[in-house]
């Protein structure tokens, strides 16, 4: 007998950092709020819905956000407060299930196939969670309910802000069919363009391609694309595990020589550093010690170069400098061109352990 369909929630706090700022400072309510440090190298951590009307989005350079919305109020992020509210929300989740997979401070997957609270349906559970969040934190959350993780995540965005959308098992294929293929997990701009060249724009279009054709163009990923188009995803909700690596990567529209990669490395280092700051806000007991540069050549050869400095990188500037310097360790002909670059932080260790290693290193140098 087959196992019962899972009941998965994806709960996403609405404009979380900006909403906390507006909650705590009444003068910010109804105004376009951008949570970011000012400066050429800063990126937007969050934008209120009032700011989003002007096209401001998270991970956007702060200078661009200021151009799009000159009247925006810029507020420096306060991760200590955001982390405290995130803990409140996590405690609400835990009243219903122990199967919680946090994605960041403001969103998580929950498996509510069986619940501690004994509520009859996943929909009732989602409503109870959203009500508790509203009453106890004075913030709002949106939720998606579905038989698997990726459909639940898409559904949570359906009625934002402060919304709930339910996709029952028999509705999954119809729900996905009209969506652009870019809504499927793992389909970025490059994959979307390659699918467009095959005449594929929507999930329904994708279903018309034979698995063999997809594998011919995308390798093993082609079979996964076929499964996703039909809403097949057996990945379980995985309770929180220690972070092993934080990274960002990008595939170029055209292949580039190594000397032209610096602006791309700077941009990706900024995204990685932002992700690292979010991780530290969530758990500051572990720090990253190793900088990783990933490259893929035009003939799909993958290279990684890494460095573990005596002291862990403590700023975006240090991360960027080390990542750029790692290009010197690539011993390939200068004519080699690259189609992808990535910047990562790894080698996570307990802060006390890392400090002890630094003391040992300094003692050896004395």
From TrEMBL:
Gene3D superfamilies: 3.30.70.270, 3.40.1170.60, 5' to 3' exonuclease, C-terminal subdomain (1.10.150.20), DNA polymerase, Y-family, little finger domain (3.30.1490.100). Its cofactor is Mg(2+). The gene is dinB. Keywords: Cytoplasm, DNA damage, DNA repair, DNA replication, DNA-binding, DNA-directed DNA polymerase, Magnesium, Metal-binding, Mutator protein, Nucleotidyltransferase, Transferase. Belongs to the DNA polymerase type-Y family. It comes from the Bacteria. Mg(2+) binds at residues 12, 106. The record marks 17 as: Substrate discrimination. The active site is at 107. This is DNA polymerase IV. Transmembrane segments: none annotated. It is an enzyme of class 2 (transferase). InterPro entries: DNA/RNA_pol_sf (IPR043502), DNA_pol_Y-fam_lit_finger_sf (IPR036775), DNA_pol_Y-fam_little_finger (IPR017961), DNA_polymerase-Y (IPR050116), DNApol_IV (IPR022880), IMS_HHH_1 (IPR053848), Rev_trsase/Diguanyl_cyclase (IPR043128), UmuC (IPR001126). Binds 2 magnesium ions per subunit. One of its GO terms (molecular function) is DNA-directed DNA polymerase activity. The keyword Glycoprotein does not apply. Residues 8-188 form the UmuC domain. It catalyses: DNA(n) + a 2'-deoxyribonucleoside 5'-triphosphate = DNA(n+1) + diphosphate. It comes from Lysobacter arenosi. It is found in: Cytoplasm. HAMAP family: DNApol_IV. Its EC number is 2.7.7.7.
